[in-house]
Amino acid sequence: MSHNLSDRELPFPLARIGIIGGGQLGRMMVRKATQLGFSAIVLDPTPNSPAGQVAGHQIVGDFFDPAKLRELAELSNVTTFDIESIDSKALEELVAEGFSILPSPRLLASIQNKLTQKRMLADRGIATGRFVELDQPTPAALAEFGYPLVQKAQRGGYDGRGVEIFHDDTDPERILPVPSLLEEYVDCDRELAVMVARGLDGTTRAYPVVEMVFDPEANILDQLLAPARISEEQTRAARELAIKTIDAIDGVGVFGVELFLAKDGRLLVNEIAPRTHNSGHYTIEACVTDQFEQQIRAITGLPLGSTEQVQPAVMINLLGEPGYSGRTIVEGLSDALAVEGAAVHIYGKAESQPGRKMGHVTVVDRSIEAAGAKAERIRQVLKIRGERPL
Protein backbone atom coordinates (compact mmCIF):
# COMPACT_ATOMS: atom_id res chain seq x y z
CA MET A 1 0.00 0.00 0.00
CA SER A 2 2.83 2.38 0.84
CA HIS A 3 5.99 2.88 -1.18
CA ASN A 4 9.39 4.19 -0.05
CA LEU A 5 11.96 4.35 -2.81
CA SER A 6 14.95 3.33 -0.72
CA ASP A 7 15.89 0.44 -2.99
CA ARG A 8 18.55 1.02 -5.62
CA GLU A 9 16.89 -1.14 -8.28
CA LEU A 10 13.25 -0.47 -9.05
CA PRO A 11 10.96 -1.69 -11.84
CA PHE A 12 9.31 0.85 -14.15
CA PRO A 13 7.05 2.60 -13.39
CA LEU A 14 8.72 3.26 -10.03
CA ALA A 15 5.43 3.82 -8.24
CA ARG A 16 1.85 4.88 -8.90
CA ILE A 17 1.07 8.34 -7.51
CA GLY A 18 -2.59 9.06 -6.76
CA ILE A 19 -3.60 12.71 -6.92
CA ILE A 20 -6.88 13.97 -5.47
CA GLY A 21 -7.72 16.98 -7.61
CA GLY A 22 -7.31 17.45 -11.33
CA GLY A 23 -6.61 21.18 -11.53
CA GLN A 24 -3.50 23.06 -12.57
CA LEU A 25 -1.49 22.02 -9.51
CA GLY A 26 -2.21 18.37 -10.22
CA ARG A 27 -1.39 18.88 -13.88
CA MET A 28 2.07 20.24 -13.10
CA MET A 29 2.63 17.52 -10.50
CA VAL A 30 1.75 14.77 -13.00
CA ARG A 31 4.31 16.09 -15.45
CA LYS A 32 7.06 15.96 -12.83
CA ALA A 33 5.97 12.52 -11.62
CA THR A 34 6.21 11.06 -15.11
CA GLN A 35 9.53 12.82 -15.69
CA LEU A 36 10.94 10.92 -12.70
CA GLY A 37 9.59 7.58 -13.92
CA PHE A 38 6.34 7.35 -11.95
CA SER A 39 2.83 6.89 -13.25
CA ALA A 40 -0.04 9.04 -12.02
CA ILE A 41 -3.77 8.55 -11.42
CA VAL A 42 -6.07 11.52 -10.90
CA LEU A 43 -9.42 11.80 -9.12
CA ASP A 44 -11.59 14.72 -10.22
CA PRO A 45 -15.32 15.24 -10.86
CA THR A 46 -14.70 16.96 -14.22
CA PRO A 47 -14.02 14.55 -17.10
CA ASN A 48 -10.79 15.32 -18.97
CA SER A 49 -9.59 17.60 -16.17
CA PRO A 50 -6.33 19.55 -16.67
CA ALA A 51 -4.38 16.91 -14.69
CA GLY A 52 -6.33 14.04 -16.21
CA GLN A 53 -5.34 15.20 -19.70
CA VAL A 54 -1.65 14.54 -18.97
CA ALA A 55 -1.99 11.63 -16.53
CA GLY A 56 -3.66 9.28 -18.96
CA HIS A 57 -5.78 7.76 -16.17
CA GLN A 58 -8.51 9.68 -14.38
CA ILE A 59 -11.18 8.46 -12.01
CA VAL A 60 -14.23 10.68 -12.46
CA GLY A 61 -15.65 11.19 -9.00
CA ASP A 62 -16.35 13.61 -6.19
CA PHE A 63 -13.75 14.56 -3.56
CA PHE A 64 -16.25 13.62 -0.83
CA ASP A 65 -17.14 10.19 -2.23
CA PRO A 66 -15.49 7.61 0.07
CA ALA A 67 -15.80 4.88 -2.55
CA LYS A 68 -13.95 6.93 -5.17
CA LEU A 69 -11.26 7.95 -2.66
CA ARG A 70 -10.79 4.27 -1.80
CA GLU A 71 -10.58 3.33 -5.47
CA LEU A 72 -7.79 5.86 -5.96
CA ALA A 73 -5.90 4.73 -2.86
CA GLU A 74 -6.15 1.08 -3.84
CA LEU A 75 -4.68 1.84 -7.28
CA SER A 76 -1.82 3.93 -5.85
CA ASN A 77 1.33 3.32 -3.86
CA VAL A 78 1.02 6.76 -2.30
CA THR A 79 -1.76 9.32 -2.56
CA THR A 80 -1.55 13.10 -2.30
CA PHE A 81 -3.80 16.05 -3.19
CA ASP A 82 -3.79 19.40 -4.99
CA ILE A 83 -6.89 20.76 -3.23
CA GLU A 84 -7.95 21.11 0.41
CA SER A 85 -11.74 20.75 0.08
CA ILE A 86 -11.82 16.96 0.30
CA ASP A 87 -13.14 14.35 2.73
CA SER A 88 -10.30 14.21 5.25
CA LYS A 89 -12.25 11.86 7.54
CA ALA A 90 -12.53 9.24 4.78
CA LEU A 91 -8.81 9.65 4.12
CA GLU A 92 -8.01 9.16 7.82
CA GLU A 93 -9.92 5.87 7.74
CA LEU A 94 -7.85 4.75 4.74
CA VAL A 95 -4.62 5.64 6.56
CA ALA A 96 -5.80 3.56 9.54
CA GLU A 97 -6.06 0.61 7.14
CA GLY A 98 -2.46 1.10 6.03
CA PHE A 99 -2.74 3.23 2.91
CA SER A 100 -0.09 5.92 2.42
CA ILE A 101 -1.66 9.38 2.09
CA LEU A 102 0.57 12.45 2.39
CA PRO A 103 0.42 15.07 3.75
CA SER A 104 -1.38 13.48 6.69
CA PRO A 105 -5.20 13.62 6.46
CA ARG A 106 -5.28 14.45 10.17
CA LEU A 107 -3.09 17.48 9.53
CA LEU A 108 -5.25 18.37 6.52
CA ALA A 109 -8.34 18.28 8.75
CA SER A 110 -6.73 20.76 11.15
CA ILE A 111 -5.84 23.11 8.29
CA GLN A 112 -9.20 22.86 6.49
CA ASN A 113 -10.86 24.77 9.33
CA LYS A 114 -9.17 28.16 9.61
CA LEU A 115 -10.04 28.39 13.31
CA THR A 116 -8.44 25.04 14.19
CA GLN A 117 -5.49 25.99 11.97
CA LYS A 118 -4.96 29.21 13.96
CA ARG A 119 -5.28 27.34 17.25
CA MET A 120 -2.77 24.75 16.07
CA LEU A 121 -0.27 27.49 15.25
CA ALA A 122 -0.82 29.30 18.54
CA ASP A 123 -0.58 26.07 20.57
CA ARG A 124 2.81 25.31 18.97
CA GLY A 125 4.23 28.74 19.69
CA ILE A 126 4.12 29.99 16.09
CA ALA A 127 3.80 33.78 15.82
CA THR A 128 0.41 34.67 14.36
CA GLY A 129 -2.06 37.54 14.65
CA ARG A 130 -4.62 37.91 17.45
CA PHE A 131 -7.86 36.03 16.71
CA VAL A 132 -11.14 34.92 18.31
CA GLU A 133 -13.83 32.40 17.42
CA LEU A 134 -17.07 33.83 16.01
CA ASP A 135 -19.96 31.35 15.83
CA GLN A 136 -22.69 34.01 15.55
CA PRO A 137 -21.42 36.88 13.38
CA THR A 138 -23.07 40.17 14.41
CA PRO A 139 -22.12 43.85 14.18
CA ALA A 140 -21.84 43.88 17.97
CA ALA A 141 -19.32 41.01 17.93
CA LEU A 142 -17.17 42.84 15.39
CA ALA A 143 -17.31 46.05 17.40
CA GLU A 144 -16.33 44.19 20.56
CA PHE A 145 -13.25 42.73 18.83
CA GLY A 146 -12.24 46.14 17.53
CA TYR A 147 -11.69 47.65 14.11
CA PRO A 148 -9.90 47.27 11.76
CA LEU A 149 -10.34 43.51 11.49
CA VAL A 150 -10.57 40.57 9.13
CA GLN A 151 -13.50 38.12 9.17
CA LYS A 152 -12.76 34.66 7.75
CA ALA A 153 -15.21 31.83 7.23
CA GLN A 154 -13.98 28.81 9.16
CA ARG A 155 -14.48 26.61 6.11
CA GLY A 156 -14.59 27.00 2.36
CA GLY A 157 -12.59 30.18 1.86
CA TYR A 158 -10.24 30.13 -1.13
CA ASP A 159 -8.67 32.70 -3.48
CA GLY A 160 -10.22 35.64 -1.67
CA ARG A 161 -13.61 34.02 -1.09
CA GLY A 162 -14.82 33.69 2.48
CA VAL A 163 -12.78 36.70 3.63
CA GLU A 164 -14.00 40.21 4.44
CA ILE A 165 -11.95 43.15 5.67
CA PHE A 166 -13.66 45.78 7.84
CA HIS A 167 -12.06 49.12 8.65
CA ASP A 168 -15.15 50.37 10.47
CA ASP A 169 -18.84 49.57 11.10
CA THR A 170 -20.28 51.30 8.03
CA ASP A 171 -20.85 48.17 5.92
CA PRO A 172 -22.59 45.54 8.13
CA GLU A 173 -24.29 43.83 5.16
CA ARG A 174 -20.87 42.41 4.20
CA ILE A 175 -20.65 40.36 7.39
CA LEU A 176 -20.37 36.68 6.44
CA PRO A 177 -23.36 34.81 7.96
CA VAL A 178 -21.36 31.66 8.72
CA PRO A 179 -19.21 30.32 11.57
CA SER A 180 -16.08 32.43 11.37
CA LEU A 181 -13.08 33.81 13.17
CA LEU A 182 -12.04 37.40 13.60
CA GLU A 183 -8.39 38.34 13.18
CA GLU A 184 -6.54 41.53 13.82
CA TYR A 185 -5.98 43.53 10.65
CA VAL A 186 -2.22 43.60 10.22
CA ASP A 187 -0.88 46.81 8.72
CA CYS A 188 1.56 45.18 6.31
CA ASP A 189 4.80 46.39 4.85
CA ARG A 190 4.93 43.22 2.72
CA GLU A 191 2.94 40.01 2.28
CA LEU A 192 5.45 37.19 1.95
CA ALA A 193 5.44 33.46 1.30
CA VAL A 194 7.89 30.62 1.69
CA MET A 195 7.47 27.19 0.15
CA VAL A 196 8.80 24.54 2.54
CA ALA A 197 9.46 20.88 1.68
CA ARG A 198 9.71 18.25 4.41
CA GLY A 199 10.57 14.63 3.76
CA LEU A 200 9.56 11.38 5.42
CA ASP A 201 12.78 11.48 7.45
CA GLY A 202 12.11 14.99 8.76
CA THR A 203 14.61 16.68 6.45
CA THR A 204 13.37 20.21 5.70
CA ARG A 205 14.30 22.61 2.93
CA ALA A 206 12.93 26.10 2.37
CA TYR A 207 12.70 27.96 -0.91
CA PRO A 208 13.55 31.67 -1.19
CA VAL A 209 11.22 34.19 0.44
CA VAL A 210 8.88 35.71 -2.15
CA GLU A 211 6.78 38.83 -2.14
CA MET A 212 3.09 38.65 -3.01
CA VAL A 213 1.16 41.57 -4.48
CA PHE A 214 -2.61 41.09 -4.38
CA ASP A 215 -5.39 42.48 -6.53
CA PRO A 216 -7.17 44.78 -4.04
CA GLU A 217 -10.64 44.05 -5.47
CA ALA A 218 -10.46 40.28 -6.08
CA ASN A 219 -8.06 39.65 -3.15
CA ILE A 220 -6.21 37.17 -5.35
CA LEU A 221 -2.48 36.99 -6.06
CA ASP A 222 -1.76 39.40 -8.91
CA GLN A 223 2.04 39.41 -9.06
CA LEU A 224 4.79 37.50 -7.30
CA LEU A 225 8.37 38.73 -6.94
CA ALA A 226 11.14 36.23 -6.25
CA PRO A 227 13.15 36.95 -4.25
CA ALA A 228 11.26 39.38 -2.01
CA ARG A 229 12.55 42.95 -1.73
CA ILE A 230 13.47 42.69 1.95
CA SER A 231 16.66 42.76 3.99
CA GLU A 232 18.94 39.78 4.54
CA GLU A 233 17.93 39.76 8.21
CA GLN A 234 14.21 39.72 7.33
CA THR A 235 14.84 36.99 4.74
CA ARG A 236 16.62 34.81 7.27
CA ALA A 237 13.87 35.36 9.87
CA ALA A 238 11.10 34.52 7.38
CA ARG A 239 12.76 31.29 6.26
CA GLU A 240 13.42 30.25 9.86
CA LEU A 241 9.80 30.93 10.86
CA ALA A 242 8.47 28.98 7.86
CA ILE A 243 10.68 25.96 8.62
CA LYS A 244 9.79 26.13 12.33
CA THR A 245 6.10 26.12 11.37
CA ILE A 246 6.25 23.00 9.19
CA ASP A 247 8.51 21.18 11.67
CA ALA A 248 6.05 22.07 14.46
CA ILE A 249 3.10 20.51 12.64
CA ASP A 250 5.16 17.47 11.53
CA GLY A 251 4.26 17.95 7.89
CA VAL A 252 5.41 15.70 5.04
CA GLY A 253 5.26 17.11 1.53
CA VAL A 254 5.37 20.65 0.18
CA PHE A 255 3.66 23.47 2.09
CA GLY A 256 3.01 27.11 1.33
CA VAL A 257 3.55 29.32 4.39
CA GLU A 258 2.00 32.76 3.95
CA LEU A 259 3.48 35.49 6.14
CA PHE A 260 2.80 39.09 7.10
CA LEU A 261 5.73 41.46 7.52
CA ALA A 262 4.03 44.16 9.58
CA LYS A 263 5.04 47.80 9.47
CA ASP A 264 5.80 47.54 13.19
CA GLY A 265 8.42 44.88 12.40
CA ARG A 266 6.48 41.78 13.45
CA LEU A 267 6.71 38.67 11.27
CA LEU A 268 3.51 36.62 11.54
CA VAL A 269 2.22 33.43 9.95
CA ASN A 270 -1.07 34.13 8.19
CA GLU A 271 -2.07 30.74 6.76
CA ILE A 272 -0.62 27.40 5.68
CA ALA A 273 -1.43 25.59 2.44
CA PRO A 274 -0.76 21.82 2.83
CA ARG A 275 0.09 21.42 -0.84
CA THR A 276 1.93 22.94 -3.75
CA HIS A 277 0.87 26.55 -4.08
CA ASN A 278 0.41 29.47 -6.48
CA SER A 279 3.28 31.27 -4.74
CA GLY A 280 5.64 28.45 -5.75
CA HIS A 281 4.97 28.40 -9.50
CA TYR A 282 8.07 30.50 -10.17
CA THR A 283 10.23 27.58 -8.99
CA ILE A 284 9.65 25.76 -12.30
CA GLU A 285 11.84 28.22 -14.21
CA ALA A 286 13.80 29.88 -11.43
CA CYS A 287 14.95 27.11 -9.04
CA VAL A 288 17.10 24.01 -9.32
CA THR A 289 14.25 21.77 -8.11
CA ASP A 290 10.69 23.02 -8.57
CA GLN A 291 7.92 22.58 -6.00
CA PHE A 292 6.15 19.85 -7.97
CA GLU A 293 9.18 17.59 -8.28
CA GLN A 294 9.89 18.32 -4.62
CA GLN A 295 6.41 17.09 -3.67
CA ILE A 296 7.00 13.79 -5.47
CA ARG A 297 10.41 13.39 -3.81
CA ALA A 298 9.02 14.16 -0.36
CA ILE A 299 6.06 11.78 -0.37
CA THR A 300 8.01 8.86 -1.87
CA GLY A 301 10.99 9.06 0.47
CA LEU A 302 13.46 10.28 -2.14
CA PRO A 303 16.11 12.87 -1.18
CA LEU A 304 14.85 16.44 -1.34
CA GLY A 305 16.31 18.54 -4.14
CA SER A 306 18.13 21.85 -4.03
CA THR A 307 15.89 24.88 -3.45
CA GLU A 308 18.50 27.33 -4.79
CA GLN A 309 17.13 30.08 -7.02
CA VAL A 310 19.26 30.56 -10.12
CA GLN A 311 17.64 33.73 -11.54
CA PRO A 312 15.33 36.50 -10.29
CA ALA A 313 11.75 35.92 -11.40
CA VAL A 314 8.35 37.60 -11.56
CA MET A 315 5.15 35.56 -11.90
CA ILE A 316 1.72 36.85 -12.91
CA ASN A 317 -1.55 34.95 -12.90
CA LEU A 318 -3.66 34.75 -16.05
CA LEU A 319 -7.30 35.13 -15.03
CA GLY A 320 -10.39 34.76 -17.17
CA GLU A 321 -11.26 38.15 -18.63
CA PRO A 322 -14.32 39.92 -17.20
CA GLY A 323 -17.41 40.04 -19.39
CA TYR A 324 -16.88 36.67 -21.10
CA SER A 325 -17.58 33.01 -20.42
CA GLY A 326 -17.62 29.73 -22.28
CA ARG A 327 -15.05 27.92 -24.43
CA THR A 328 -11.55 29.17 -23.73
CA ILE A 329 -10.00 31.62 -26.18
CA VAL A 330 -6.33 32.64 -25.88
CA GLU A 331 -5.24 35.96 -27.37
CA GLY A 332 -1.71 37.32 -27.78
CA LEU A 333 0.27 34.12 -27.20
CA SER A 334 2.78 34.87 -29.99
CA ASP A 335 3.45 38.35 -28.61
CA ALA A 336 3.94 36.95 -25.11
CA LEU A 337 6.34 34.25 -26.25
CA ALA A 338 8.37 36.83 -28.15
CA VAL A 339 9.43 38.30 -24.79
CA GLU A 340 12.82 36.88 -23.87
CA GLY A 341 12.82 34.99 -20.57
CA ALA A 342 9.05 34.42 -20.52
CA ALA A 343 7.47 31.02 -19.83
CA VAL A 344 3.73 30.74 -20.47
CA HIS A 345 1.66 28.07 -18.72
CA ILE A 346 -1.89 27.47 -19.99
CA TYR A 347 -3.80 25.16 -17.65
CA GLY A 348 -5.99 23.32 -20.13
CA LYS A 349 -9.33 24.41 -18.68
CA ALA A 350 -11.97 23.99 -21.36
CA GLU A 351 -14.11 26.90 -20.15
CA SER A 352 -13.16 30.38 -19.02
CA GLN A 353 -15.07 32.38 -16.42
CA PRO A 354 -14.32 35.91 -15.19
CA GLY A 355 -11.57 35.75 -12.58
CA ARG A 356 -10.93 32.02 -12.96
CA LYS A 357 -7.27 30.97 -12.88
CA MET A 358 -6.53 29.97 -16.47
CA GLY A 359 -2.74 30.08 -16.50
CA HIS A 360 0.33 31.94 -15.37
CA VAL A 361 3.47 33.50 -16.80
CA THR A 362 6.90 33.51 -15.21
CA VAL A 363 9.58 35.86 -16.48
CA VAL A 364 13.23 35.38 -15.48
CA ASP A 365 15.85 38.06 -15.93
CA ARG A 366 18.98 39.46 -14.33
CA SER A 367 16.96 41.67 -11.98
CA ILE A 368 13.50 41.80 -10.44
CA GLU A 369 12.94 45.19 -12.08
CA ALA A 370 13.73 43.92 -15.58
CA ALA A 371 11.60 40.80 -15.10
CA GLY A 372 8.73 42.88 -13.72
CA ALA A 373 8.76 45.26 -16.66
CA LYS A 374 8.56 42.34 -19.08
CA ALA A 375 5.76 40.71 -17.08
CA GLU A 376 3.70 43.90 -17.27
CA ARG A 377 4.22 44.03 -21.06
CA ILE A 378 2.93 40.48 -21.31
CA ARG A 379 -0.06 41.29 -19.10
CA GLN A 380 -1.14 43.89 -21.65
CA VAL A 381 -1.06 41.53 -24.65
CA LEU A 382 -1.87 38.04 -23.33
CA LYS A 383 -5.57 37.56 -22.58
CA ILE A 384 -7.67 34.49 -21.84
CA ARG A 385 -11.45 34.78 -22.16
CA GLY A 386 -14.59 32.85 -22.88
CA GLU A 387 -16.02 32.95 -26.38
CA ARG A 388 -19.41 34.34 -25.24
CA PRO A 389 -19.95 37.89 -23.99
CA LEU A 390 -21.94 38.00 -20.75
Automatic annotation (TrEMBL):
**Catalyzed reactions:** 5-amino-1-(5-phospho-beta-D-ribosyl)imidazole + hydrogencarbonate + ATP = 5-carboxyamino-1-(5-phospho-D-ribosyl)imidazole + ADP + phosphate + 2 H(+)
Determine the domain of life of the protein's source: Bacteria
Subunit arrangement?
A: Homodimer.
Q: What class of enzyme is it?
A: ligase
Q: What is this protein called?
A: N5-carboxyaminoimidazole ribonucleotide synthase
Would the keyword Nucleotide-binding turn up in this protein's UniProt record?
yes
Q: In which pathway does it act?
A: Purine metabolism; IMP biosynthesis via de novo pathway; 5-amino-1-(5-phospho-D-ribosyl)imidazole-4-carboxylate from 5-amino-1-(5-phospho-D-ribosyl)imidazole (N5-CAIR route): step 1/2
Q: What exactly does this protein do?
A: Catalyzes the ATP-dependent conversion of 5-aminoimidazole ribonucleotide (AIR) and HCO(3)- to N5-carboxyaminoimidazole ribonucleotide (N5-CAIR).
The ATP-grasp domain sits at: 118-300
